[in-house]
Amino acid sequence: MAAAVSQRTRPRTRFTFSGWRSLRLRYLNAMQRLPHRLAEAGVEQRTTARLGRMNRHVRRILFILAGVLAALLALLCISQPFDLSAQFVFVLLLWGIALVVRRVPGRLPALMLIVLSLTVSCRYLWWRYTATLNWDDPLSLTCGLLLLVAETYAWVVLVLGYFQTVWPLNRQPVEMPPDSSRWPTVDLMVPTYNEDLSVVKPTIYAALGIDWPRDKLNIFILDDGNRPEFRAFAEEVGVKYIARATHEHAKAGNINHALQHADGEFVAIFDCDHVPTRSFLQLTMGWFFKDSKLAMLQTPHHFFSPDPFERNLGRFRQTPNEGTLFYGLVQDGNDMWDATFFCGSCAILRRTALDEIGGIAVETVTEDAHTSLRLHRLGYTSAYIRIPQAAGLATESLSAHIGQRIRWARGMVQIFRLDNPLFGKGLKLAQRLCYANAMLHFLSGIPRLIFLTAPLAFLLLHAYIIFAPALAIALYVLPHMIHSSLTNSRIQGKYRHSFWSEIYETVLAWYIARPTTVALFNPHKGKFNVTAKGGLVAEEHVDWVITRPYMALVLLNLAGLCFGIWRMMYGPADEVMTVIVSLVWVLYNMTILGGAVAVAVEAKQVRQSHRVEIAMPAALSCEDGHLYPCTLRDYSDGGVGVEMRLPDRLKEGDKVGLLLRRGRQEYSFPCVVTRAFGAKVGLRMVALTTRQHIDFIQCTFARADTWALWQDGFPEDKPIDSLRDVLALGFRGYLRMADYAPPRVRGVLVGAMSLLSWLLSFIPHGVGRSATFSQKETVV
């Protein structure tokens, strides 16, 4: 009888699982088809068109009424007290809506996600302020308030970030007038201090090829190092050279001194390693004709070499780098609110507006952002075109990268103190908020350190930083984190993958905490430090000086982990769940710290010139008269890689001429074969004349379309996959640290990490998430 019952029930069980599987597949297919159906239906387009046809005053009244109604409903959702079961239903409902909405194309669904995220986050913060502080225990209250301050800071940055990026403008270029006699004169300035001449030459060579009337373009080398070889180089290539006897106010003072010797109607500024494309002025100057109040137009800072994060973690052009979010989305969002920042390079400014504010600002070490703030205060407008029109060298070492960020952080806080955008005349509300968010962003050091140590207060000191049951913590904290991750993934996914900000901010937290705090109290303290470019890393090594604060935090969290395990086994039974929550937090912190350690393992970098990938027709002419068509696959300032149509035609040591075209002209460059493997051939430039070097730079680095598509092609952000990547990097950091540790410590670390890696290998992996391009670098 039992067997018969078992046989009768088995098909029903299989049907149940089969039905669930079928329902799940139907849901996934429906969600995949939903964006296409909505796009075909044109719902957003029709709604936008109807609003556009509506009377302006009626439309404004409707928006106000909708905003008031939404605010009242949000206030009710935020402040209404729920028991845990009601909170669970509320969270589940909003989460389900978010999962459906995030797949719908268009900006309105993104706005809905922002509303959902803000509702959940505000409800969490309300709960934290009203129900989670232990007023009976001074230690718990102190630790809880510190965490609450850090969370409030993170909430403010989250809200301002949504506002800043909710509606990127995506400004397009405006055509120049056909009559070139109306075009203005432009002074193109390249400031330099201690950089090697080999870094500056490509920038000047590219500037000489900019598509602009020769009599209306003046190129200046602003040498703050007073070097004779720079003066001789300027005379050789026919550009102007300016040096000054004194060197006050660093880069800003250098430019202001040069302005006294220049009289162009516009000023274009490039860092000495930023190689401009020939289309820079053609792409940017049209907007100055269209808007007479436009004082500054900024284009992205693009880097063709990997920064320390990309190089040391092996993620170059696989994951959006640290700057992609700012130049890909934030500046475009700022442009919507007429709040584009001047970034010190790859920009052009109206000379009359610059003179009106007294030149480049010199009161802070971030003179660029301060200059744009002053222009905005006088009612001038700004613009941003998100098309890279120059490319430069990223910082070569983590220490140089951190030094650069310290200067940025100190300077932005100096502006916050000396010329606070929230006060004073001249700025619109939106501009004040955009500037304030940019400055508050650099105050993240102390809050980040609090998040990295907060669970230790409970595990080591028995202080209740969140005085609530573990289940309540989960029902309020997790929705806050999940919704913000989903929303940011939707808004920022193309420019910043989920959880990578954790690593970026952790690496910088310790180092920017002190200078920003000092700048808050003494904004005049601090000096300008020049970022080194073009350096080499002879051997792979751990930068132990940089890793000291990370290692201290790792040891603290490790102590908390060990003590937490002991408390879970031998502590009070009613604290077990809270201990588990704290342990999960500690493990996450240790993973992020492991990623920071991985960044500090400096990868070997012995390339004199960085290679850039491309696919461009070329040809090779041999000494025997043969001409072989080929494709240029990569290039640097000193050599190229080509792919032959016919393999095995050349051998190492052969002398050839590389033929490249620019427009209707063809140029030949003498080369020698350094490697030949089938159809793949590597070439090194030999004995280029100055004219040939200029032509080569203009045929490669300075092409109008060289960098246009570099920001495209990153894989779509998938939060789960990104979390898995960050976890893997954390384990990698400890394994790399073990490679350089004493033998006894190394064995323990390698064993522990191997065990954890084996356990994590059972987690299912996603497929199809790879970059649509690759970057190959070879040694010249």
Distance between the termini: 81 Å
- Tell me roughly what share of residues is in helical segments: 40-55%
Output the strand order for the largest sheet: 3-2-1-4-8-6-9
As a whole number of angstroms, the C-alpha radius of gyration is: 29 Å
Quaternary state of this entry equals single chain
Determine the structural class based on helices, strands and strand pairing: alpha/beta
What is the CATH topology of the domain at 180-396? Spore Coat Polysaccharide Biosynthesis Protein SpsA, Chain A
Corresponding CATH architecture of the domain at 180-396: Alpha-Beta Complex
Q: List the uncertain runs.
A: 1-15, 771-780
CATH superfamily of the domain at 180-396: Spore Coat Polysaccharide Biosynthesis Protein SpsA, Chain A
The total count of strands amounts to 18
Strand content: 5-15%
CATH top level of the domain at 180-396 is Alpha Beta
Average of pLDDT: 86
Q: Categorize the overall geometry.
A: globular
The main sheet comes to: 7 strands, mixed
Helical element count? 25
Membrane topology: Multi-pass membrane protein
Domain PilZ: 605-701
Enzyme class: transferase
Function: Catalytic subunit of cellulose synthase. It polymerizes uridine 5'-diphosphate glucose to cellulose.
Layout of strands and helices, then pairs:
Blueprint: H1 2-41, H2 43-53, H3 56-79, H4 84-101, H5 107-131, H6 138-165, E1 186-192, H7 197-207, E2 217-223, H8 228-237, E3 240-242, H9 250-259, E4 266-269, E5 275-276, H10 280-284, H11 286-290, E6 294-298, E7 302-303, H12 308-313, H13 324-336, E8 347-350, H14 351-356, H15 367-377, E9 381-384, E10 390-392, H16 398-418, H17 429-441, H18 445-461, H19 470-492, H20 500-521, E11 541-542, H21 544-570, H22 576-599, E12 601-602, E13 612-622, E14 627-635, E15 639-644, E16 655-662, E17 665-677, E18 680-685, H23 690-699, H24 719-739, H25 743-760
Helix pairs in contact: 3-5, 4-5, 4-19, 5-6, 5-19, 6-13, 6-17, 6-18, 16-17, 16-20, 18-20, 18-21, 18-22, 20-22, 21-22, 22-24, 24-25
